[in-house]
Design brief:
This protein is of the alpha/beta class and about 210 residues long. It has 6 helices and 7 strands; from the N terminus they run E-H-E-H-E-H-E-H-E-E-H-H-E. A 7-stranded mixed sheet has the order 3-2-1-4-6-5-7, with helices on both faces. It is globular and about 40 Å long. InterPro entries: MobA-like_NTP_Trfase, Nucleotide-diphossugar_trans.
């Protein structure tokens, strides 16, 4: 990883990264936060590295099921991060209630974090689930380019919605109020006409629900 990739230009909007990795992975057979590729790279670490390489700061990782083990994976890989101090673990206490609870925990942490100055305020958050192993920094960069507080964007692959989803801070409170069950941000994105950003040239965007599809 090159330090040039991590530099946020002066006056550029600050974008946080948010990795959702709290679920038990019932269809997969174990928490996806613990999945390690044959290469030895955990999905969790790969997602966080992609966000860091795209310039996201801070990077919040929401954990729940097997949270202590997942956090250990992150710690073990800390030397792979240019700025490990940007990583923040958020424990979703009610992760079993579904995806919405995990997303709410991450947004709550972002809203409670107070910047030292107005210029340090986070403009938007780039949201990714842990189970999209071909996520890369180029995809994230395309989504976070020139964001504003009212940005609402979603990566599309082969015409289908995928990740990242970028949510400007003006949407955080109303999105949290609308969250329910295991649907996550999807209903809110549809209702507010999220902007589709084609990313077919950068990856597949496929998420992995079962080991046979990895």
């Amino acid at each position: 990883m090159h330090s040039d990739d991590l530099t946020r230009p002066a006056h550029a909007p600050r974008v946080a990264g948010l990795v959702l990795a709290a679920g038990a992975g019932s269809r997969y057979g174990r928490p996806k936060a613990l999945v390690v590729e044959a290469t030895g790279e955990p999905w969790l670490v790969r997602a966080a590295l992609a966000l860091e390489a795209a310039g996201c700061d801070p990077i919040l990782v929401v954990l729940g099921a097997s949270g202590a083990e997942a956090e250990s994976l992150l710690r073990a890989a800390s030397d792979r991060f240019e700025r490990p101090d940007r990583l923040r673990v958020v424990q979703a206490q009610d992760w079993a209630a579904g995806l919405s609870a995990s997303l709410d925990a991450g947004l709550d942490r972002l809203q409670r974090d107070k910047p030292e100055t107005d210029g340090d305020a986070v403009t938007a958050v780039a949201l990714v689930p842990v189970d999209v192993p071909d996520l890369n920094a180029a995809i994230v960069r395309r989504l976070v380019d020139a964001v504003t507080p009212d940005t609402l964007r979603q990566a599309h692959f082969a015409g289908l919605p995928g990740h990242p989803v970028v949510i400007g801070r003006e949407h955080w409170a109303p999105l949290r109020a609308a969250l329910t069950g295991d649907t996550g941000a999807r209903p809110y994105l549809v209702a507010h006409r999220v902007t589709a950003v084609p990313c077919d040239d950068l990856g597949t965007g496929l998420d992995v629900d079962e080991p046979s599809t990895a």
